[in-house]
Amino acid sequence: MRIGAHVRAGKGLVPALQHGADIGAEVVQIFTQSPRMWKPSQYGAEVLDAYRAAQAEHPSVTSTFCHATYLINLASPDPELAAKSRACLSANLSTAEGMGADGLVLHIGSHRGSGFDTALPNVADALMEALDGVDAGDDPCPILLENAAGAGDTVGRSFEELAQVIAAADGDERLGVCLDTQHLWASGVPFASIEEADELVELVADTVGLERLRCLHLNDSKVAFGANKDRHENIGVGSIGAEGLSALLGHPELQGLPAVLEVPGDGDGPRAEDVVAARKAWTAGLALRS
Ligand SMILES: [Zn+2]
Ligand SMILES: [Zn+2]
Questions:
Q1: Which ligand is nearest to the CA of 221?
Q2: Which residues have a beta carbon within 5 Å of ligand 2, which is an ion?
Q3: Which pLDDT does position 36 carry in this prediction?
Q4: Separation of 234 CA from ligand 1 center, angstroms?
Q5: Has residue 217 got a pLDDT over 80?
Q6: b/e burial code for range 31-63 (CB count within 10 A of at least 16 → b)
Q7: I need a surface site. Which of 97, 100, 205, 244 has the fewest CB within 10 A?
């Protein structure tokens, strides 16, 4: 398992990659643009090319994932917000493609009471529009649908729902899944014992399929099990705890995946000690299962 970290691109993309390496991450995740603004990416083609080259040649960081803008809501019943969301997703995917990312992680959004079944065809159509619209090479950047914490009518609160979204998009192979441990915990799915972790991996295999699972988001939780809130905590400090994460991290079927930290650190995101804590939880999980 490669341990990764979300890194901020305030000083530019290549410095963000280097920051990831400096804290010991083997994988980085970067926002394609300011996550809480509609304003499109400021990165020109030269900047994206420079990032792609720096990533390809990097001695320790082996891959990059991008995270889409939080404002995107593909399930919105409001036509104006839905249209803005589609345009923004397309722009995000084009940036991720330009960076040579292994995936663009996306929160699908909330149907705001209009109902999952009503939102489903619109979500699928928006995903296909973005995937078909991007200028991709032989190895297109997939969109990775992230499981939601379950607050306020969010779409994708369970793997069954994510599987339905993928099926509605005709099972397009450019769609994958990202499993966030904090969101899962908050949505009331247990995985802290070996038996529970095994059941979860079986559930993923039976719904979206393990080949679609491309990335883990490795976060402890500020809120209690089942609290339905998206609140990340540093590894070992939250309600899941390092031991609670180990059984899942040690699962043999997950060893090829990157596990990306999106923890607060001391306010500026993952630090070197957070990467160390994550690696410890993983090696403890391997030992637990050996
Ligand atoms: Zn996310
Ligand atoms: Zn996440």
A1: 2
A2: 180, 217
A3: 87
A4: 16
A5: yes
A6: bbbbeeeeebbebeeebbebbbebbeebeebeb
A7: 205
**Which ligand is the nearest neighbour of the Cα of 215?**
2
Q: What is the pLDDT of residues 131-174, one digit of tens each?
A: 999 988 888 999 999 999 988 889 989 999 999 999 999 999 99
Distance in Å, CA 180 to ligand 2 centroid? 5
Cα of 260 vs centre of ligand 2, distance in Å, is 8
User: How far does residue 221's CA lie from ligand 2's centre (Å)?
Assistant: 11
Q: Are 207 and 249 in contact (CB under 8 A)?
A: no
CA of 232 to the centre of ligand 2 (A): 9
Delineate the domains of the chain, giving CATH numbers in brackets. 2-288 (3.20.20.150)
Ligand nearest to the CA of 67: 1
3-state secondary structure of 88: helix
| Smallest-distance ligand from the CA of 219 | 2
Q: What is the pLDDT of residues 64-75, one digit of tens each?
A: 999 999 999 999
For residue range 183-200, what is the model confidence (pLDDT) as tens digits?
999 999 999 999 999 999
Q: How far apart are CA 93 and CA 99, in angstroms?
A: 10
**CA 290 – ligand 1 centroid, Å:** 31
Q: Which ligand is nearest to the CA of 105?
A: 1
pLDDT tens-place string over residues 220-277: 999 999 999 999 999 999 999 999 999 999 999 999 999 999 999 999 999 999 999 9
CA of 206 to the centre of ligand 1 (A): 23
Q: Residue 105: enclosing H or E segment and its boundaries? A: strand 104-106
Q: Where are the alpha helices (DSSP H) in the chain?
A: 13-22, 45-57, 79-99, 116-133, 159-168, 181-186, 194-207, 241-249, 272-288
